[in-house]
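Schema walk-through. Below, the input block comes first and the output block second. Nothing else is stored per chain. Lengths vary across the set, and this one has 324 residues.
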Amino acid sequence: MVTTLEQEQPAIGKILLSILLVVLALTLPGLHWSLFSWTFLTLPLLAFLVYCRFGMHVGKRMLMTAVVIALGGHLLIGNFKLFLFASVMLPPGYVLCHSVQRGASPAESGLLASLALAAGWVAAGLALTLGGETFIYRQMLEGLDQALLEALGQYRASGAMDAQTLALVEATIGRMQTVIPVILPGTLGSMALLIVWTTMALGKIAVERVSSVVAWQDFSLWSLPEKLIWAAIGAGLSIMLPWPLLAKIGINAALLLAVLYTFQGMSVTVFFMRKWNVPLLLRSFLYVMIIFQSLGTIALLCLGIADTWIDFRRQRGNAAPSSP
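--- output ---
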């Protein structure tokens, strides 16, 4: 079913306010990174809301205006690199809104938006490389390695550890120097998936409150394609094979799939929280506890994988409660 976006003439005040919010999200990190870096993460959500609220044509013009204004601000403060990586956070919002128009499933919408975000990061890195800088991925690896060496140097200089403990710390940091380059692609991909999933979850709630757009089905019914489990099985098997390159690919694929099945586990949890009418305050507390506890995350992962075969949500054809 294709969703028709709202096409009413918006008030000029709402247009200017939306442009201002996008400009601030693009520009503030360049003024004070440690204080405003989080605004980058809101850009896909802002773009999604602009496109859904004002339509694709008007929304595109609004975002282009915001990008031009933000570019001027970044040129004034001399931080074009930051602008480049901020601007590529906007296309996923377009992809998600277009997916809503087409009636695409949440899984397909999230995959396409994540690919758009990852492609934007790669394109921005390549653009900076052509400008004479080292590829940003290599800079990240070198920066992480340097941070580990500095941490090790501080432990050695402190003199607060006995020889056995220091040897354990040295072995741990050495292992991290080996492991980080292997899992960094999967880690970055997981970040893209998390950004897009958060955008979809929050965007669905927000856009349905400010417009007539219905963004996907209820979150408690979101699920991954059943056949995707074979990719997870294949990734697990490839890790055990004696070919380093294939094992590296399998490790990163397993990381990405683990994130996806954790999302599915979360949707199953929301389904039963609503089915059992758990009070909203207690439900919110449990969500926070589950997400921020490592054991809770593992439980969500196991639940998401098990749902592929057991189908916990046998009543998914029924209307689920609409409370958040």
